[in-house]
Design a protein that fits this description.
Elements (H helix, E strand, L loop, with lengths): L7 E5 L7 H11 L3 E6 L5 H11 L4 E3 L5 H15 L4 E4 L18 H13 L1 H10 L5 E6 L12 H21 L4 E8 L5 H4 L4 H11 L8 H12 L10 E4 L16
Parallel strand pairs: 1-2, 1-4, 2-3, 4-5, 5-6, 6-7
Helix pairs in contact: 1-9, 3-5, 4-6, 5-6
The structure holds nicotinamide-adenine-dinucleotide (NAD).
Length: about 260
Amino acid sequence: MGLLDGKTALVFGVANNRSIAWGITQALLREKAAVGLSYATETLEKRVFPLAQEAGIDFVEKCDVTSDEQIAATFDKVREQFGKIDILVHAVAFAPGEELGGRFRDVSREGFKLALDISSYSLIPMAKHAADLMPDGGSIMALSYYAAEKVMPRYNVMAIAKAALENIVRYLAADLGPQGIRVNTLSPGPIKTLAAAGIPGFRSMLSHSEKVAPMRTLVSQEDVGNAAAFLASDWAKHITGETLFIDGGYNVLGLTATEEDL
Ligand code: NAD
């Protein structure tokens, strides 16, 4: 018996086996949820299909979250296949490469619009469709980063997108709570993934986090998956509108110091 026995999850954002969404999928499967996947573009099919097949997942749908039609069509297919769902995971983000790094003041209007459309706004229509398929309540979660709250070098427009995402989570939590639907943010420390590779200086973010975070370790996809399984489960039944940090305690620090500094 698993923590999520009898529950069904829909996970957006698997690009490959390093994706946080894949770590979450594996944890949900381990806890006996049925899982459907959605991925962004045809170019990802050669990575996503074999993963799904290996894991015994037979619902795998392409959906570009900038399209309301594609989001609606994906949820129509979810309704056909599963009838209802209990868990929605939004692990989707994008910003044009030129918007990451450089001076913050150079963020372009187009880059800002695209980053916030994909990384923040998309949660709203996804949650709306998901809520229609959650007659027994449910758990919705999105992935954020501490740059939503505090300035991080080079994260630029993505930090603004994450701040918007976290506030969207709070508004959705208030809106959907009366239907028994919880909405939360998972905020992991840095993890080497495809999206992370687009952030200049990401390696130094990793080594700095490992040196100074209270737990002195890096976070893995599996760690995020385990936290997601908890939030998806009835053990988290009164937790909504929250940001859950999975960062070895990095977010509690003011001045970050290494052993040598102390
Ligand atoms: P990833 O590249 O594996 O996942 C990002 C996903 O977003 C990909 O599957 C990509 O296809 C999808 N995506 C981009 N544009 C899309 C679109 N238009 N429609 C549908 N999907 C689209 O990288 P990841 O690090 O696993 O990212 C997952 C989430 O975790 C993101 O929200 C990211 O910001 C967040 N996050 C990552 C880290 C980290 O260090 N890797 C830390 C904190 C939060």
